[in-house]
Design goal:
- The chain has 628 residues and is α+β, with helices and mostly antiparallel strands.
- It has helices at 2-28, 36-61, 64-69, 74-81, 166-174, 193-196, 230-249, 254-260, 270-277, 299-302, 348-351, 354-367, 400-409, 416-434, 497-500, 507-523, 532-537, 557-566, 578-591, 598-610; strands at 93-101, 107-112, 128-132, 135-144, 153-162, 178-183, 186-191, 203-208, 217-222, 308-309, 312-320, 324-332, 338-346, 378-384, 387-393, 397-399, 456-459, 464-466, 623-624.
- Helix content is 37%, strand content 19%.
- Strand 6 and strand 7 form a beta hairpin.
């Protein structure tokens, strides 16, 4: 009896010690809130919108019709532009044309849609952000040289569009986050609006770099409060103590005694449940759901499956584009088949517009014709559960834009062999796309049209992939959707001059984008080769970029010559095709060993990604005390 009492005392002390350990672990755990991804998501939305708006306004400014119209009157302007498809405003967009007399006040000649508030009608150095009427707006105005009366006035064309943030606000609300976007005196609340006014809520300030002009943009995040763990400590401690005492006295259920005798024990013992209950949700490991998991456990311990679209189960959101969201998902099939894929889902607001649906599915139809190890492969496309989707291979890694940003922030330059290997692989993939033939044997004449760092992906295993053929162009009859007259699609800073001016293009326009990518990889700086640079500095000396020797001393002159040749103003001065550019790069790589392969690239990206880990709550750049 005395031995049993002693045993109970020892076990009780051990239980109290376990309880102290559990509560201490909970007390000391540093819950993390990584604010940076929300800032990057908003930056991406704004950069994409500003690039598209700039291309839109600049295209309008170059139309001969407009040069003839801006020196006339409102009625004439309306007559001259009513048949021009480029002047038909898109959803959430306002287009305006005006006059800027050299003496007198500006005159608005046309606003579409009728009755809308005209955008800013003074020339800007690029897209300008503002908050108006509860919406985030981008606007830009460009001067137009009139065909007549140029000595009296200048023309002006402007456009504004609303940046869609409702989906972002819903995601924030789903994560329990409140947010406030501030531009000058304007404020726009997102997520859970009530959380913004709660006293005692920590604030995380994230400056947003949107590459736009005008006042700075600030995103203030209000994360969900840390859970009150006191009830869990008490319940956990009691359960641990009770479980330990009963274990010592041999009074567990018969199933537990059977376990000691060799039977399979239950997955969840009272002690295990107590420890789980005493652990904050953010620190609980995933629980495998299976036959051995008791259905009587709290639902929060079991977890919940994601929503499904057809045979694809969504795991998490990984990106947002202009028309669609991209998710990490599981593809399921017969006999327990499962595979991780990237699922691109068209926004439901666009799904009601047949032209946009065709454009979305056209991306998959084009990309599915491409079969090359350096091009993201399309697995499936279709319509299920009222959603249009494209299923493609999942690239476990990052795009070059993010990798360049990480390296620059860490003060590390990307190794020359890695740069050469990546650019060579991009050239190889593009050449395959440019030379792809349709089922009838005819050359597709496919051009990507948006070659930039954000559309080149590097996997952790070192494989390089070109993605996003969403605005690719082909002259073959299989192309379903064609670019509207007067619209130029792409990212201005990476667009070849002939592309930017709306002239016919071929694969050498993509080569121009590869030159810009190579320059950014080596310099760590953004390339902006918009044709406005041409107007400012002239065609002489194009592309108006600093020598790479200003950024690093290991770039061979031969390599710099290759890059600047790819960036030539005239397409005829570039390489004949991407295969020729790849051959030139291959010669540089062999003459400056070591030659990097997939393994070398894999080692580099693994190092880069470790520099971009989430920052704990206590180490965030700035936490503001609540205002009183």
């Amino acid at each position: 009896m005395a031995a049993r009492s002693t045993s109970r005392i020892i076990v009780t002390i051990a239980s109290l010690g376990a309880l102290a350990a559990v509560t201490t672990a909970v007390w000391l755990s540093d819950r993390t809130f990584d604010a940076a991804p929300w800032g990057r998501l908003l930056e991406g939305r704004l950069r994409e919108g500003s690039a598209a708006l700039h291309a839109r306004v600049a295209t309008l400014a170059e139309l001969p019709t407009l040069a003839a119209a801006v020196s006339t009157d409102p009625r004439t302007v309306r007559d001259l532009t009513q048949d021009e498809l480029a002047f038909r405003p898109r959803r959430g967009e306002v287009v305006a044309v005006g006059q800027l007399p050299k003496s007198g006040t500006p005159v608005v000649l046309l606003v579409l849609p009728e009755g809308a508030e005209p955008p800013i009608m003074t020339q800007t150095a690029g897209p300008v952000t503002a908050i108006s009427s509860g919406a985030l707006l981008l606007s830009e105005a460009i001067q137009v040289v009139p065909r007549e009366r140029a000595d009296e006035l200048q023309g002006i064309v402007a456009a504004s569009e609303e940046i869609e943030l409702e989906d972002l606000s819903r995601r924030m609300a789903a994560d329990g986050i409140g947010a406030r976007l501030t531009i000058a005196e304007g404020r726009l609340d997102l997520g859970i609006r009530g959380r913004i006014t709660e006293g005692g809520t920590p604030r995380f300030m994230v400056p947003v770099d949107s590459k736009t002009t005008g006042p700075g943009i600030l995103l203030t995040l209000f994360p969900p409060p840390a859970p009150d763990t006191a009830p869990f400590w008490i319940a956990g401690g009691l359960l641990v103590a009770v479980a330990a005492l009963f274990s010592a006295s041999g009074r567990l259920r018969p199933e537990a005694r059977n376990a000691r005798a060799g039977a399979t024990p239950e997955v969840w013992t009272p002690a295990a449940a107590a420890v789980a209950l005493a652990t904050p949700l953010a620190h609980r490991p995933p629980v495998a759901v299976g036959a051995a998991t008791p259905t009587s456990l709290p639902k929060v311990l079991i977890g919940a499956t994601g929503r499904k679209i057809g045979r694809y189960e969504i795991l998490q959101h990984i990106g947002t584009g202009g028309m669609a969201d991209v998710y990490l998902a599981h593809a399921t099939g017969e006999a327990g088949f499962t595979k991780k894929i990237a699922l691109k889902v068209l926004e439901r607001s666009f799904a009601r517009q047949p032209e946009l649906v065709n454009h979305f599915l056209d991306e998959a139809r084009l990309a599915s014709m491409l079969d090359h190890p350096n091009i993201v492969q399309i697995i499936d496309l279709g319509h299920a559960d009222d959603e249009y989707f494209i299923a493609m291979e999942f690239i476990d890694g990052a795009d070059l834009a993010r990798l360049i940003e990480i390296s620059a922030r860490a003060g590390r330059r990307i190794p020359l062999p890695v740069v050469l290997a990546i650019v060579r692989k991009v050239c190889d993939g593009l050449h395959a796309a440019h030379t792809t033939r349709a089922g009838d044997g005819a050359l597709l004449g496919l051009v990507h049209r948006d070659m930039k760092c954000g559309n080149v992906f590097v996997a952790r295993n070192g494989v390089v992939k070109i993605g996003d053929f969403g605005i690719a162009m082909t002259n073959h009859a299989s192309r379903v959707t064609r670019t509207q007259i007067g619209l130029v699609k792409g990212t201005p800073g990476y667009m070849a001059p002939e592309h930017r001016l709306g002239q016919p293009i071929d694969g050498r326009a993509d080569m121009y984008g590869v030159g810009a990518i190579a320059y950014e990889l080596l310099s760590g700086t953004s390339v902006n080769l918009d044709v406005t640079m041409l107007a400012q500095r002239g065609r002489e000396g194009w592309p108006h970029l600093a020598s790479l020797s200003r950024f690093r001393d290991d770039v061979p002159a031969q390599l710099e010559a290759i890059i600047f040749r790819a960036l030539s103003y005239d397409a005829d001065q570039r390489f004949a095709d991407c295969a020729a550019m790849e051959a030139a790069l291959d010669e540089v790589a062999r003459s400056h060993p070591p030659v990097a392969g997939d393994k070398t690239i894999a080692q580099w990206i693994e190092t880069a990604l470790t520099l971009d880990s989430p920052v704990p709550l206590q180490q965030q750049a700035k936490v503001l005390a609540p205002r009183t």
